[in-house]
Design goal:
Radius of gyration: 47 Å
Largest sheet: none
Order of helices and strands: HHHHH
Helix content: 55-70%
Distance between the termini: 112 Å
Strand content: under 5%
Number of helices: 5
Length: 165
């Protein structure tokens, strides 16, 4: 529940008649009642408005309108040009939905994210392949180093092989 903003005495006088006739929205009713409770002068004025509204309902005689008035009124309404309701009150047309910029940005973000994930998966695969190649190259280099050590050794002796009968 949001706190109500207090009103001035001038604003109170504008709303008090509507309060007495029960013609205000609930938020305005609360503001008027709150102000009347805190301001003694306005509380008295509100009481006067309420008494006047009660007296109007009792003292003014009720008069039934002439029977022809209803027909004239309905005819005048039919003859009056009808305004189109505002756009937001008319139902939307079925068919192709409208795309808002927010949805377009969200869709673009999703596409970029998915592309990034696919690219990262590809890069991870390349890194795994390169690590395997490096491991194989190290093993081969270690064997070549061993062969080079043997060939460079001082104890190396070259002998002719003789067939054995």
């Amino acid at each position: 529940m949001t706190p109500q903003v207090s009103i001035t005495c001038d604003e109170f006088l504008d709303l008090a008649a509507g309060f007495a006739l029960d013609a205000l929205e609930q938020s305005d009713v609360e503001r008027v009642a709150q102000h009347a409770a805190t301001c003694p002068d306005c509380g008295l004025k509100l009481q006067e408005f309420l008494e006047t509204a009660t007296a109007l309902g009792v003292l003014v005689p009720q008069v039934d309108p002439p029977a022809a008035l209803r027909g004239r009124l309905l005819e005048a309404v039919r003859a009056a040009p009808q305004e189109r309701p505002p756009e937001r009150l008319r139902p939307r047309r079925l068919g192709r939905p409208r795309l808002s910029p927010a949805w377009l940005v969200a869709a673009a973000s999703l596409v970029v994210s998915l592309a990034s994930i696919a690219w990262m998966a590809h890069m991870q695969d390349q890194m795994t392949t390169l690590r395997a190649d490096v491991s194989t190259a190290r093993e081969r280099a270690a064997r070549y180093d061993h062969v080079a050590e043997v060939l460079a050794s001082d104890k190396l002796a070259i002998r002719q092989l003789q067939p054995v009968a």
